[in-house]
């Protein structure tokens, strides 16, 4: 069976308007993992089309590609923030290839498979981890077996939607094949995370663990990954990095899982192995601040880590407690100092206008942002999301605009869509203006400009910096004009 795996545009390119060159270009890891699992199980006619990365944002190009590949099954990965592009694409596919079956998967489908069937012309929906589900579906279809044995699958039968039951989580992540980067080999040189979030290309994204043991009110992680933390071993990761260096000459890795350093033993072993094997590679990771210590961070730095991203979310302890985040303002301050001392750049994620936020708690967040050693700032206005613990609670704390529930409404880039939540005592204007002002204050401080200038060591760094400030200026002006 020939299988085409797709990801429609995540819209980053459109959002950046005239500053496309500064937009991140990242592959959809879900389809690369699924492709690898299919290949491991001897299904070798697998093709991947990542619309953003392949810079083919028009549906015609994807349809043409499908026409050439002649798949027997299409799999598409869907995040809530790009349901609209997936919807358009799928309707075109169904018009052009009416008998070609399509399975949807990814966070949006897992969170509400019933809704996914209503919104999108899908034949099947993969709920949860799709690696084994997809392989088993292909085998069941090949052998014309009934589908009820394929766990984690929803499908239409006699006008009804049937769900086969939850797919158990994969126990041993090391039994999984490496993501199938070879299927998008010629596009690897294009991969880049946020413009200031990498040093050297070619670069690959790696997901080193799945799941997070915490359950923050605004995050759907618990529902998606079952609240269980599972991780690849240090040995597996270093073998994989060595493999990718030899295959594609990569120079940097971005670990994009939720918390790379949750298991201290694993991080230390990973750093030791990288150094033992003399693998000189830059890397960065998403981390939780409460796992930071001098010991871990110093080893990370020695082993090539230069940058981390972390969610602090708020500068007020009551709000942090309400979120359910295991962090206090004092701990966050102390841990950011540790990163700073060890010369690891840090990007902080913060949210304005969370349920229970007031102008006073927001001022605490602003003070925190401006008074701690952060290298980059990511500041969004709170956006409601299906599948999060707070989803049905939001109305207690403010006005909810469900029509703006696309995940992007609170980002500086996405304000144009309108906010999805405005807390009691706050207004959309106030939130958007505050976001705009804090960005300007943060990046235009003399100390910040100096810090960023000091980090320049190559011509490429200069170019990135110009693009970064250009795009930043574009967003600030755009969000001021659109009211
Ligand atoms: C890396 C990441 C990003 C990267 C982008 C990565 C990329 N390639 O584009 C960055 C930092 C840019 C980012 C931004 C945002 N992100 Co993000 N991100 C993640 C993160 C941490 C990892 C994603 C990942 O690669 N996971 C690993 C892969 C293997 O998992 P997966 O893609 O889910 O695939 C598995 C299953 O879903 C399923 N599956 C996937 N596709 C398919 C297809 C088929 C056919 C089948 C059967 C199964 C299937 O099987 C796969 C393997 O098991 C997740 C959280 C998480 N831990 O998953 C959030 C997450 C995906 N992001 C989320 C959000 C909300 C955003 C933002 C909208 C936030 C914001 N307001 O700015 C933006 C959107 C920006 C944009 N333009 O896309 C939400 C999405 C929720 C939703 N309902 O869609 C998540 C789940 C976080 C959360 N818990 O709330 N993100
Ligand atoms: S926000 Fe981060 S720490 Fe909180 S549940 Fe989600 S992934 Fe875990």
The main sheet orders its strands as 2-1-3-4-5-6-7
The parts where pLDDT drops under 50 for at least 5 residues are none
Pairing-aware structural class of the strands and helices? alpha/beta
Rg from C-alpha positions?
Answer: 22 Å
| Count of beta strands | 17
Number of domains: 2
**Biggest β-sheet description:** 7 strands, mixed
Overall mean confidence score, pLDDT: 92
What is the CATH T-level topology of the largest domain?
pyruvate-formate lyase- activating enzyme
Q: For the record, what is the CATH homologous superfamily label of the largest domain?
A: tm_1862 like domain
Shape: globular
- Distance between the first and last residues' Cα: 51 Å
**CATH A-level architecture of the largest domain:** Alpha-Beta Horseshoe
Strand content: 15-25%
- Bound molecule kinds, no repeats: cobalamin, iron/sulfur cluster
CATH C-level class of the largest domain? Alpha Beta
Pfam families: B12-binding (PF02310), Radical_SAM (PF04055)
Domain Radical SAM core: 198-420
Cofactor: [4Fe-4S] cluster
Domain B12-binding: 11-148
Secondary-structure blueprint of this entry?
Blueprint: E1 3-7, H1 12-15, H2 29-40, E2 46-50, H3 59-69, E3 73-77, H4 83-96, E4 102-105, H5 107-111, H6 113-119, E5 124-126, H7 130-142, E6 153-157, E7 160-163, E8 203-206, E9 209-210, H8 221-225, E10 230-231, H9 234-248, E11 252-255, H10 264-276, E12 282-287, H11 294-302, E13 305-313, H12 317-323, H13 329-341, E14 345-352, H14 359-371, E15 376-381, E16 398-400, E17 421-423, H15 428-443, H16 446-454, H17 459-481
Parallel strand pairs: 1-2, 1-3, 3-4, 4-5, 8-11, 11-12, 12-13, 13-14, 14-15
Antiparallel strand pairs: 5-6, 6-7, 9-10, 16-17
Helix pairs in contact: 2-7, 9-10, 10-11
The structure holds cobalamin and iron/sulfur cluster.
Cobalamin is lined by residues 10-12, 24, 26-31, 33-34, 75-77, 79-81, 103-108, 110-111, 126, 129-131, 133-134, 207, 219-221, 224, 256, 258, 380, 383, 385, 407-408, 411.
Keywords: Iron, Iron-sulfur, Metal-binding, S-adenosyl-L-methionine
InterPro entries: BchE-like, Cobalamin-bd, Cobalamin-bd_sf, Elp3/MiaA/NifB-like_rSAM, Methyltransferase_Class_B, rSAM, rSAM_horseshoe, rSAM_sf
Domain Radical SAM core: 198-420
């Amino acid at each position: 069976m020939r299988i085409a795996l797709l990801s429609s545009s995540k819209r980053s390119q459109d959002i950046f308007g005239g500053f496309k060159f500064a937009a991140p270009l990242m592959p959809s890891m879900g389809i690369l993992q699924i492709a690898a699992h299919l290949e491991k199980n001897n299904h070798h006619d697998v093709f991947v089309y990542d619309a953003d990365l392949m810079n083919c944002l028009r549906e015609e190009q994807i349809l043409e590609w499908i026409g050439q590949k002649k798949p027997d099954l299409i799999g598409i990965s869907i995040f809530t923030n790009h349901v609209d592009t997936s919807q358009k694409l799928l309707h075109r596919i169904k018009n052009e290839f009416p008998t070609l079956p399509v399975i949807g998967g990814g966070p949006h489908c897992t969170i509400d498979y019933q809704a996914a069937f209503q919104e999108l012309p899908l034949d099947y929906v993969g709920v949860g981890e799709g690696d084994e589900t997809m392989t088993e579906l292909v085998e069941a279809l090949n052998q014309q077996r009934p589908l009820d044995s394929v766990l984690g699958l929803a499908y239409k039968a006699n006008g009804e939607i049937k769900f086969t039951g939850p797919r158990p989580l994969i126990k041993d992540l090391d039994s999984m094949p490496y993501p199938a980067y070879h299927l998008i080999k010629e596009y690897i040189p294009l991969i880049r995370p946020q413009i200031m979030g990498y040093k050297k290309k070619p670069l690959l994204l790696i997901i080193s663990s799945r799941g997070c043991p915490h359950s923050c009110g605004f995050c759907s992680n618990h529902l998606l990954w079952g609240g269980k933390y599972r991780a690849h071993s240090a040995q597996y990761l270093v073998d994989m990095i060595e493999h990718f260096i030899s295959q594609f000459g990569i120079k940097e890795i971005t670990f994009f899982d939720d918390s790379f350093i949750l298991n201290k033993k694993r991080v230390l072993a990973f750093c030791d192995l990288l150094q033992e094997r003399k693998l000189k590679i830059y890397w960065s990771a998403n981390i939780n601040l409460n796992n930071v210590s001098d010991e871990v961070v110093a080893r990370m730095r020695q082993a090539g880590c230069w940058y981390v991203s972390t969610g602090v979310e708020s500068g007020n302890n009551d709000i942090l407690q309400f979120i359910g985040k295991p962090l206090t303002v004092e701990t966050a301050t102390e841990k950011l100092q540790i990163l700073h001392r060890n010369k690891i750049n840090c990007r902080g994620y913060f949210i304005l206008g969370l349920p229970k936020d007031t102008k006073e708690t927001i001022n605490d967040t602003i003070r925190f942002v401006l008074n701690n050693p952060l290298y980059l700032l990511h500041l969004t206005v709170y956006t409601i999301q299906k599948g999060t613990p707070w989803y049905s609670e939001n109305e207690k704390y403010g006005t909810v605009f469900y029509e703006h529930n696309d995940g992007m409404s609170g980002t500086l880039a996405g304000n144009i869509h309108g906010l999805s939540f405005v807390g009691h005592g706050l207004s959309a204007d106030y939130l958007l203006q505050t976001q705009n002002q804090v960005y300007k204050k943060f990046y235009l401080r003399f100390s910040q400009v100096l810090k960023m200038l000091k980090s320049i060591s190559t011509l490429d760094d200069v170019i990135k910096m110009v693009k970064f400030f250009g795009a930043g200026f574009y967003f600030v002006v755009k969000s001021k004009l659109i009211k």
